[in-house]
Amino acid sequence: MQVRRRASGDSSADATPGEWRGPGPHPVAWYRKALPGRAARAVTDAVALASALLIATLLRHDGHIGEVDFTGLVVLSAAAAVVQTAAGIHFGLYTGRWSYGCFEEIAALARTAAVTTPALFLLDTLMGRLVPRSAIIAAGLIALVFTAGVRYTVRLLHDNRLRPSPEHGTRVVVMGAGEGATQVLRAMLRSPQSPYVPVALLDDDPAKRTFRVMGVPVSGTRDDMADVVRRYRAEAVVIAIPSASAELIRALTEMAQPLNVDLKVVPPVVELFGRTVRVEDIRPVSHADLLGRREVGIDLEAVAGYLEGRRVLVTGAGGSIGSELCRQLARFNPAQLVMLDRDESGLHAVQLSLDGRGQLDDRNLVVADIRDLQRLDEVFAEHKPHVVFHAAALKHLPLLEMHPSEALKTNIIGTYQILQAAMKHNVDRLVNISTDKAADPCSVLGYSKRITERLTAAADATATGTYCSVRFGNVLGSRGSVLTAFTAQVAAGGPITVTHPDVTRYFMTVQEAVRLVIQAGALESKGEVLILDMGEPVRIADVAKRIADAADQHIQIVYTGLRPAEKLAEVLLGPDEPDHRPNHPLISQAPVPPLDGAVLSLLDASAQRDELIAVLHWLSESPALPKKPHPVITGKQRRSPENVVPGPRS
Predict the structure, then answer these.
(1) Domain boundaries, given as residue ranges, for the chain
(2) What is the Cα–Cα distance from 376 to 91, expressed in whole angstroms?
(3) Is residue 339 within 8 Å of 365, Cβ to Cβ?
(4) DSSP annotation string for 331-382
């Protein structure tokens, strides 16, 4: 806080009435703090060059001091200091452009020497040959060695002061000797408070057997893990490979289990977003790392082309997929990111994750229900989005089997109304998020999402923009995912319930899924469904066993049998859908027969459960119906012969 007062005892010039004064002395200007250090560097380099001139001259005269012209040497050294300082300033050597002793500064040092040496050669000629010419050339090389050596020594002393003490940190063996490992070692060794002290590296590349990274040696391959851990008395193993696949992490986990060491890992590439690894990023291996981790390439230029500077709307923004979509979309600098959900707590959580405030005072946070067409029209009219990601949906298969009318109202009618609002307000691009249950569907969830894929394809044929659907399977870490359920069952003391010993599912982390969804939105498509490659399916029983084995107590696994409409194995492509990948190696593009939205008049949420499911099944497979309006079939009308709804095809 500043106090407005008149200083007593000062001269009239200093004690101006009404002068604003701080409570303490004025802060020192930045250049007054920086100049002494930069001047010291310039003086050190000048002394190094003068010493190099003396040594080179003595060498030229075979060490005979009497033959040296010290007066001329002093004059030339003074001229050399001026030339070198001027060249160093020009190349950024003394302007604080780089940290002391880094590679960029050494390169600037070499450029400075390359300019200073010929300049001294010319000055010496003009001044009457003060020193031998060969001494000037040799002095340039010697000075470069001296100045680089000084920088290396200072940098080494500085790094040694920052290295944590082996007595106070956890001794770790780092798996990997590439760029990821270098970042990890730098993070560990540049802070005295680091909880980790790297003692050895492991890498499968034979060419790296003699490597040392920041003084830490490569001591073997992954097969030598047990021997290296015992030899260096390591307490933990850190997998420092951001691009490590789930298969590699599973293999290393199995090797580390009998060694009684903590196994830790750095985040995958999709979580780092190009930034360097920090000590805080190192964490225990999660089940998501073991199941769904892989490197997902993304065409940043294409993605930024349709997101940067555009108004983007995300429905279901408070959910697992929607919230991660918002976090990743924000990195592409949209002009406006509108987050829509009927769950106000979900919106609060996603805003908190984006800006750390969570004040709920932003008009871009929209509380709305996609079942309310009038409200959707208000939202689209206010924000005028260019791009829409439609993630709002009901997704729990058993619940929707019991309550199919809710799938109709949210998944089908809600999506149709989003499509209608998007077309009315000229949205350029819409991505409808679907599920693998829509491939060869046999459940209410699958029927409803297949119908939305077909409605999206019909909208794409009519709209001026690009409208497509993206289909993928189970997302690890999402609300209601199998890992969440298993973890809760373990916390409750068990048992873990699995439907069938041979049931398999596709898995992908939420970051990977969203990254591919964003990439899919950049692809050119004609009402197609874009299917994300989710790798190989995983046996749920194996997942359950792994979680049970990791628990602190004995956890039983119980098989309950497949639930109604549940598949033993999911598929990503329907029987008539080709695995065609014209634009991205991890995204298949399959044609979708459009479905005219007018047929939704055949659906009645108050219908009997079995009848409604039959109509949903039929609509998911039916040919496109004519665009003639259909009357809404009520419960009373349904019994009359002329209003019988066609049943599912055999």
Answers:
(1) 38-162, 170-285, 310-399+418-443+451-592
(2) 58
(3) yes
(4) GG--SEEEEEES-HHHHHHHHHHHHS------TTEEE--TT-HHHHHHHHHH
Chain CA centroid to CA 467, Å: 26
Q: Can 170-285 and 310-399+418-443+451-592 be said to share one CATH topology?
A: yes
pLDDT tens column, 270-289: 555 556 677 777 888 877 77
CATH fold of 310-399+418-443+451-592 reads Rossmann fold (3.40.50)
Tokens describing residue 413? 């009618």
CB 508 within 8 A of CB 472: yes
Between CA 290 and CA 284 the distance in angstroms is 11
CA distance 303 to 325: 13
Beta bridge partners, 3, equal 21
Per-residue three-class SS string for 272-295: HCCCCCCHHHCEECCHHHHHHCCC
* Residues 528, 461 contacting (CB under 8 angstroms): no
Q: How confident is the model at residue 312, as a pLDDT?
A: 96
pLDDT digits (tens, 9 = 90+) for 150-177: 888 877 776 666 666 656 678 889 888 8
78-100 confidence digits (pLDDT tens): 888 888 888 888 888 777 766 66
3-class state of residue 425 by DSSP: coil
CA–CA dist 223, 227 (Å, integer): 9
Give Rg (Cα) of the chain. Answer: 34
Where is 558: in which H helix or E strand?
strand 557-559
Contact 121, 133 (CB under 8 A): yes
Entry pTM: 0.66
Q: How far apart are CA 253 and CA 247, in angstroms?
A: 10
Alpha-carbon distance of 399 to 402, in angstroms, equals 5
Quick count: other Cβ atoms within 10 Å of Cβ 276? Answer: 13
Q: Which of 117, 130, 109, 46 is nearest to 81 (CA)?
A: 46
**Contact indicator for 135, 60 with CB cutoff of 8 Å:** yes
Do 465 and 306 touch, CB atoms closer than 8 A? no
Preceding amide of 495 cis, omega within 30: yes
Q: What superfamily in CATH does domain 170-285 come from?
A: NAD(P)-binding Rossmann-like Domain (3.40.50.720)
Specify whether the CB–CB gap between 436 and 506 falls below 8 A.
yes
Tokens 């429905």 map to which residue?
315
